[in-house]
Design brief:
Helix content is about 45%, strand content about 15%. The protein is an alpha/beta fold. The structure holds adenosine-5'-triphosphate and zinc ion. It is found in: Cytoplasm.
Length: about 450
Amino acid sequence: MTEIKLHNTLTRRKEVFTPLDPENVRMYVCGPTVYDRAHLGNARPVVVFDVLYRLLRHVYGPEHVTYARNFTDVDDKINARAAESGRPIGDITAETTQWFLDDMSELGALEPNHMPRATQYIPQMVAMIEGLIADGHAYAAEGHVLFRVRSYKEYGRLSGRSVDDMIAGARVEVAPYKEDPMDFVLWKPSSDDLPGWPSPWGRGRPGWHIECSAMSYELLGESFDIHGGGNDLMFPHHENEIAQSCCAHPSGGFAQVWMHNEMLQVEGKKMSKSLGNFFTVRDLLDKGIPGEVIRFVFLSTHYRKPMDWTAEKAREAEATLRKWRALTEGVSATDVADPVLEALADDVNTAGAVAELHRLAAAGAAGELKASAALMGLLGEELGDWAKAVDLSEFAQRIRNLRTHAIETKDFSELDAAKAALQTAGVEVRMSKDGVELVPGAGFDVSKLETLK
Ligand SMILES: Nc1ncnc2c1ncn2[C@@H]1O[C@H](COP(=O)(O)OP(=O)(O)OP(=O)(O)O)[C@@H](O)[C@H]1O
Ligand SMILES: [Zn+2]
């Protein structure tokens, strides 16, 4: 069996991956808060962990891997969006969730086995919070419940910081009902105009961190293999998840391996909604950049390195994919090439794997190229429509020239023949006094067009 090595944030080392149960390898990744279109940065963890999911399925068998990624559909940012837009919260979260699924599917990401919505796990969160209070790890005060950070000795291990350093560095909220400024919210009261659920502490709503602890426990158990997300979530979100889960289930080990992707940046800064320096995945797709090209650009950089999106990278990716698609057209996939598998098994080194794909293409090993690319979610049928669409500008120019010539000579035969040939290839020719427009129709056939060149 292929040996997989993964960089574990907890130990800061690359380690041989040994699943707790090879019959059921389990991974949890923090998903989006649903109130807006996903920006390109949000897509990076989706693509990165999609490749890891595919690798695990390849090595352990598709039915032996369980992948859960949540939707945070209760959050103050969502409430604020509803208030400013005058729309019901449920409409906003349902619409945004569907946008996310559509956009990520265009990037060739497989759907995780479980996609829990936080609002569907409120009773489980309440139960977990009750357990934490009973064991002295949390306390209720003024309708809030807070986690007592000093009650968990290992707090700070993931990010490698002491509690005192964290207090100094973080913008922790000081509140009269907190025993210690580091303590974080598990539950908070809701006024009548905000979403709320009944609880032993009154009508309220959960804090963000408890969601992932409760949902991963319900779906994957008290110990599972991999927990992932962007490195912006390491503190406080993941640190808090660990504290809650390990205190609620002391016999479990929670996540064995913690993996964090680096940020997609814009001029050296994290792309983020709060900085306003973002563009959405949908913006790029609408500009005609195929999802497969976006995916390829992501995979060309290792997940633990920061990266920028540039138009030049997109152009190169598109040219490469067009070449590889032509090379593998109609070819049956053989086995995944060993060097590609080895690169992916080496801490998901997608950049190394892409270099190996280039080598396979150069050697004309089309069957291996197709199989190896498929392991990375590339060159599949489902993403391929864009590559069949061809650039018709050359033909449009030819028609324009022929028309000028025909008007001068009063001989329309060449123009008519060229139009007829395009129509046979399924291209509609629209001519007006302003110009010429070529539109591929339902019967569009690229191979017929090739013969016209
Ligand atoms: N620029 C980025 N590069 C890579 N991953 C990112 C980036 N920004 C957010 N993420 C990741 O996207 C996922 C969804 O995060 P979340 O919904 O909290 O983002 P967000 O609140 O919309 O982001 P932000 O406000 O930071 O722009 C998380 O795993 C997070 O780490
Ligand atoms: Zn989370």
